[in-house]
Amino acid sequence: MPFREKSAWISLLAYLGIYGFYFAKVGAALMRGDTDGTPFLGLFAQSVVMFVLVTIVFTVVIAVLSPRDAQAPTDEREKLIALKASSASGYVLASGVVLTIGVIFFGVKEFLVINLLFFVLVLSEMFRIVTQIVLYRRGA
Amino acid sequence: MSGEQIRNDIRRLRFEHNEMTQQQLAEKIGVTRQTVNAIEQGKYSPSLEAAFRIAAVFGVPLERVFQYHP
Questions:
Q1: What ipTM was assigned to the predicted interfaces of this complex?
Q2: Which chain A residue lies closest to B31 (C-alpha atoms)?
Q3: Distance CA A138, CA A78 (A)
Q4: Which of A69, A76, A140 minimises the CB distance to B43?
Q5: What is the pLDDT at residue B4?
Q6: Looking at the 3D structure of chain A, how many domains does it have?
Q7: A90-129, pLDDT tens digit by residue?
Q8: For a 10 Å CB count at each end of chain A, is N or C smaller?
């Protein structure tokens, strides 16, 4: 498996694990009818920091294990894959933002709106990574 | 980008050039081994520049490497 595909898998698993935990906690609070976001500020910050640390540490580990692959510049096929994936995820992001704007008109609490926007951002990033992995697997 | 209409003889040309590996060809044209593999299997059509580089590595005209079948 090439370095960039491994790196994509690391990001995807980190998104699933770390932000999955965050949104599970937020979802549970919302189910209880708890819409005060203040207690979640700490969890939000911890999740972001944890995500950055986990992706950096594991990316460094795989780079050390295959240094030549890691140092190789991005070639034309990889650039095309990145562009296709970003383009596809852009649709997810735009659709999610529009839907969230629609939800605002129903008078929902800020805590839900903020987390919906954050969820859309995470979802679009995960979609970008999955698209990249699929394109790497298919060839282009 | 990929198309079955464009076929290539890269595998045969590699074999004829001292059984050059995909990795060796990749290093000569400045792409990854996976990209050479994708080109060879017709899954990815390279840029004109990369196509000319491949032809130059084998010392043959471009049409000896890639053939278009409309």
A1: 0.85
A2: A75
A3: 12
A4: A140
A5: 62
A6: 1
A7: 999 999 999 999 988 888 888 889 999 999 999 999 999 9
A8: N
